[in-house]
Design brief:
4-stranded mixed sheet; 13 strands
């Protein structure tokens, strides 16, 4: 059976480290891993008509991905993020604004997709501008299953944006710290174990599935009827940037493929750990798998 297309919406950025610049952004990272898993993927984003923009298109083509739904902006620059790592190798981000991905237009994408059915992957950051936010809402109206990675990046990911996204989503990924923020915002500061908070969130927003990640401690998946937990795979961490995106892509692949929650979570943890053990968020796959 032919796989339904997946649209990955949002920011394309260059992660600028102290000694290197690496192409990234959660929508691109997720799209890359879904493409590697055999899905027809469309990245909906916008880049500048500048040197970084031209390099962006070249590198995305080298990854094997199509660039037909990536727009070019005549005025705004290609996105950049300054990344710094703390003593525990945890990244922090300084996101340049404005950027071309603040100006994503819906009409060119809808015209190109025509009546092709699609699933949609999206996050919070790309909604910081009214233009891109409105475009996302138009795509959400057309999409089948909506996969939302909360991915809080203060000060751009405000509670009202998260609230609207949770209401629109079917499957949500959140890390433990973000889950506690959601509890403060939407659940009257509910305290307790992750499972209880997660299930209450799932029910409140009528989600099909909630994934809660907890770094090297693993992750858990929660539905109304089931909860599974996996402690994760221990690897030597080289670069943690993008490991959460790899986790989410594997989860989406397993969910759409009808795998059990146990199998979904094991594959997602394995892929996230593998990417953390590599340099960059889109490492080359050895052979046909990790």
């Amino acid at each position: 059976m032919m796989k339904k297309s997946i649209v990955s919406f949002g920011e394309i950025v260059w992660d600028q480290f102290k000694d290197a610049s690496i192409l990234g952004g959660a929508p691109l990272n997720v799209a890359y891993h879904l493409y590697a898993a055999g899905w027809p993927v469309h990245i909906v984003s916008r880049i500048g008509d500048d040197g970084l923009g031209r390099e962006t298109l070249q590198q995305i083509k080298q990854l094997g991905l199509t660039v037909t739904t990536i727009q070019q902006d005549p005025d705004l620059p290609t996105g950049r993020v300054l990344v710094s790592l703390d003593a525990d190798n945890e990244p922090s981000f300084e996101i340049a604004a404005p950027a071309a991905w603040d100006n994503i237009e819906a009409e060119p994408v809808l015209c190109q997709m025509e009546d092709t059915p699609f699933h949609l992957v999206f996050g919070t950051l790309a909604q910081r501008s009214e233009t891109s936010r409105s475009s996302l809402h138009r795509l959400l109206e057309k999409a089948d299953i909506k996969f939302y990675d909360v991915n809080l990046r203060p000060p751009y990911t405000k509670p009202e944006l998260v609230l609207a996204s949770l209401k629109a989503a079917n499957v949500v990924k959140v890390n433990r710290e973000e889950l506690m923020s959601l509890a403060d915002w939407f659940m009257k500061g509910k305290k307790g174990v992750v499972e209880d908070i997660g299930r209450e969130l799932l029910v409140a927003f009528d989600l099909s599935l909630l994934a809660v990640t907890d770094g090297d401690k693993g992750a858990q998946l929660i539905t109304r009827d089931e909860r599974v937990e996996h402690k994760g795979f221990q690897v030597k961490v080289i670069d943690p940037v993008g490991s959460g995106d790899a986790f989410f892509a594997a989860l989406i692949n397993g969910y759409l493929g009808g795998l059990s929650l146990d199998e979904c979570l094991q594959q997602a943890n394995r892929q996230g750990a593998w990417v953390a053990s590599q340099q960059g968020a889109t490492p080359l796959y050895p052979g046909k798998g990790i």
